Amino acid sequence: MPFLIILLLIWPVMAIFAQPSPSSKCTSKCGNVTIPFPFGIEESCAMDGYFKVDCNSSKPYLREINLEVLDLSIDSTMRVSYSVYNTCDPTQNLATANLKTTPFIFSQTKNRILGIGCGNYSLLSNDDSVIAQCSTTTCGRNGNSLSYCQSTIGSPLKGFAPFIETSPDDQECHYAALVEEGSACSCFSSDSPTVRCNCLRGFQGNPYLLDGCQDIDECATNTTICGSQNCENFIGGYNCYSSARSKSEESKVNMIILGLNTSFGTLFLLIGAWWLYVVIKRRKEIKLKENNFKRNGGLLLQQQLTTSFSGSVDRGKMFDSKELGKSADHFNENRILGQGGQEQNEDLPFTWDIHLRIATEIAGALSYLHSAASLPIYHRDIKSSNILLDYKYRVKVADFGTSKSVPVDHTHVTTRVQGTFGYCDPEYFQSNQFTDKSDVYSYGVVLVELLTGQKPIFSTITEQGRSLASYFINSMEEDNLYEILDAQVKLGMEEEIMAMANLAMRCLNLHGKQRPTMKEVAMEVEGVRAPKRNSNVQVEHNYETFKYKGLEVT
Questions:
Q1: Per-residue model confidence as pLDDT tens digits over 284-324
Q2: I need a surface site. Which of 121, 123, 419, 488 has the fewest CB within 10 A?
Q3: Phi, psi at residue 162, to the nearest 5°?
Q4: Start and end of every Protein kinase domain (predicted)?
């Protein structure tokens, strides 16, 4: 079931002009598709290997990415055919599309994500980040037998992986794909950074060939262009003159003017291009900093710092990137949290008891946010990378950039879907309503990570899909839990392991109302750990008493 995808081509313009023009022996067509330079079928006719086209059975294929080309244009675009991801036979799908090593990108303005099926959530991911998403409605309520959704993508893409989230008991076929906007249901437009070439005024032809732009003979094309005067054509334009002035004199003046205009024009063009590059790069950097500032809670921090404090409390200070760079050793990678700061503590092995304590402390922190804070707070991005551990594996819950405080008389916040793929609540995908039970679902995924040692998303497609949550639920239902447990976890007490596994199942329930609250989760995890902790305290107490009595006797 192929769909059309638009590829937006970006190639270095100056490098193209430095190439020799293709010879007349180059094949110009493959089937009904015209192959213009810089593309070519013969080795010597393409600019380089990325633009090499293989013509198989009158169908052109771009060699480097092995996709069928439907149309090529010298305005920097081409249309290709690409497979659709479907849930019926995932082994027949192309799992990912990767253009990272090529000069091509998927167009932001000419493509959309399309999802087909009843009550599913379709998305495109890139490096475990959601880049485009849409959800379909449940069929049958209004007599519908098919539902679809479409959505724009956030930026030009170098690669993507399609995925569909459905109910585990759903037996229908569902489809997801990146498609050309003309094959979707409505048109849309947006700006996109592209590089395009045009012939200068007075010239026409293919601007991507050496000497591809040829002079237009305006005098021959339009015989009345000079009226009653004589018309003289020159490279790049034409001149109207009377018989009183000699043709040679007019030609010399025009050549001088043309030379000066060309020289200054080229100079200003180069200066303008360099200036535009610097401006765009600087704006992107500024925009990136602003987005990171907002996403990581900068506006909330700024508001708190500007709030008046009592005279006995020092006002906080916000540092800029230059000041932080000095203290962070110019942002040395060895100082990044989560990248090397935690190697393994040989004096404190990562045992089942440590696993259990981590699960308890995470649950306690989230329970405090939901139930004990002055206003309930939903974290909205619970995942393992936001759980920081010190050298004794003590827990700190981090990254409150997407957190929301909720009035006590509210049960949810309505917002566009945000979060990390693999941890997000399926109900949140369908309703755009984030509840306290959505944090409970994310905690359930983290708990499954602690039990299995697996990542939330598998790199390859399994029978249960790519989701660790679905894989865990199926294993529990088939009584195969111990086959997927981490080696250290298997050394723990069976009763404790089963209690934590059953708790994870309840947290991952597809119906939010049937999940426990974080307060109930924290109490249950504490109950599993309490007997062991109390026994350790009793041992320590007896040991201290023994030492004290020994001193007393001495």
A1: 988 888 888 888 888 887 787 777 554 444 566 777 777 87
A2: 488
A3: -80, 150
A4: 253-528
Contacts of the segment 459-462: beta carbons below 8 A, 24+ positions apart: 460/95, 461/90, 461/91, 461/95
Catalytic residue chosen out of the listed positions 215, 217, 381, 425? 381
Q: Is 381 a catalytic residue?
A: yes
Judged by phi (left if over 0) then psi (alpha if -120 to 50, else beta), residue 173 lies in: beta
DSSP, collapsed to helix, strand or coil, labels residue 389 as: strand
pLDDT at 146: 58
Is the model's pLDDT at 248 over the cut of 70?
A: no
d(CA 348, CA 391): 9
Which domains occur in the chain, in start order? 3-183 (no CATH), 352-537 (1.10.510.10)
**How many angstroms separate the CA atoms of 181 and 423, rounded?**
30
pLDDT value at residue 207: 65
Q: Please tell me the pTM assigned to this model.
A: 0.43
Q: Model confidence over 43-57: pLDDT tens digits?
A: 889 888 888 999 988
Residue type, 74: I
Q: Where are the beta strands (DSSP E) in 449-505?
A: 457-462, 465-467
